[in-house]
């Protein structure tokens, strides 16, 4: 049982019916990946490669056509129950769209806590303070609304919301892509720390290979809806096997690159 | 190389002013939300007049007094008297009671119906949206006034049928407005976060959608009250609205216009001014609210 990975996607297929052209678009075709307990697994690929769709399928926001998603030894049914939701939570790309502008931070966190735990009254407030500590935000922000908060702060709140119900797996869909480079490091370090502190497993989706390299244990490369390569992080960067991975790695700007000769 | 540098767009110094919007009000007015204050005071004055009508009016609004017909404005009759000798001031303030009450009450039902309709339609989309919007299309297919007049014709005169007729027709505007807002929200990631978090659909709609779409509906409601005042006054003008002798601005204008040629302007002028006063007040409030309720994303 404990040898099983926390998450195992097998041959997941997701298609969309195009209304206008009456054609079928296959966003994810036969993708398989695993996330082990306490691991941070990267999923990299270019725009439109199906990485976000696969992420949405893992958290249950996207129906899958075939294949299976097995979490913690049990396959997810087509319709998820509340207890299923508790195991996997997601952090989204756009920090400006992922918080309700009309709801205070404590409102956002409380909603989740009350839905999934037995905590009530002051215990909920205490939990909110804990969560703010966890994501390194001052508790004074609890009473404010997202307006006026920075992208980095918003993303930390989004992480706090995801962690509020102690999920085993966090799916982070490009969580730093919309942030300033100076803020990115803070979020990446936070995710790394959370793995140590609460034993969180993370499926980290990104197109930024340098971040994947610093954060992830294993990396999956997705191309046109298929996982083309899966390797431990160091090996993938040292010796990519797949042609696509090689071109992807070649696209990283290098020190000593073309500008160095000037 | 240098050519492309010199053609870089230069941000004009007035950009900051432009960013505040294209409304006609000057900056100082918007900073203190004077529109809301002016509109609120104007409407407040009218509402107070309506509430305290029995105290303010020295004469009965309905009792004819043939001996004092068609008098000009004086200390005793502030706005003069009409052809039956009734005090015009009394009729205007009592008219505010009937007209404003129906106008405001007739906004509540369409507001609620349209809000629910729009949120459900925008959130669920698909065939639910298609069916709901076809229903809205059917109502929109008829010209607004024609449909209201037809309904009042069927239902008969009186406040109640005006209320029903307006409700049947004007919910569509709210539904469309709210649906548009809801469709934008639908694609926001916080909605996906709620769904992934297992938050129930009813809670998503009530606690996340409703507060986010209600602002636009409230602002629209202000102009809708103006529209309702127009509808009531127009219907009454044509003899389809409030039943005489209950004072009402529309029937006052209708009754008074035959005396315009004789130089008795007061009969028409004062109720018309009241309509304009209320419309202006609500327009100011609408603009002011739009500004006050706007929230940064």
Automatic annotation (TrEMBL), chain A:
CDD domains: ABC_NikE_OppD_transporters
UniProt xrefs under PROSITE patterns: ABC_TRANSPORTER_1, ABC_TRANSPORTER_2
GO biological process: transmembrane transport
Entry keyword Nucleotide-binding: yes
MF terms in GO: ATP binding; ATP hydrolysis activity
SUPFAM superfamilies: P-loop containing nucleoside triphosphate hydrolases
Database matches in InterPro entries: AAA+_ATPase, ABC_transp_ATP-bind, ABC_transporter-like_ATP-bd, ABC_transporter-like_CS, P-loop_NTPase
Keywords on record: ATP-binding, Nucleotide-binding, Transport
Domain called ABC transporter: residue spans: 7-249
Annotated family: Belongs to the ABC transporter superfamily.
Protein name (database record): ABC transporter domain-containing protein
Source organism (scientific name): Flexivirga endophytica
Organism classification: Bacteria, Bacillati, Actinomycetota, Actinomycetes, Micrococcales
TrEMBL record, chain B:
Transmembrane segments: 36-57, 100-123, 135-154, 160-178, 225-243, 263-285
InterPro entries from the UniProt entry: BP-dependent_transpt_permease, MetI-like, MetI-like_sf, OppC_N
CC annotations in GO: plasma membrane
Residue stretches in coiled coil: none
Compartment annotation: Cell membrane
PROSITE patterns, per the entry: ABC_TM1
Membrane topology field: Multi-pass membrane protein
Keywords: Cell membrane, Membrane, Transmembrane, Transmembrane helix, Transport
CDD domains: TM_PBP2
ABC transmembrane type-1 domain boundaries: 96-286
One GO BP: transmembrane transport
Protein family: Belongs to the binding-protein-dependent transport system permease family.
Name of the protein in its database record: Nickel ABC transporter permease
Species of the source: Flexivirga endophytica
Lineage: Bacteria, Bacillati, Actinomycetota, Actinomycetes, Micrococcales
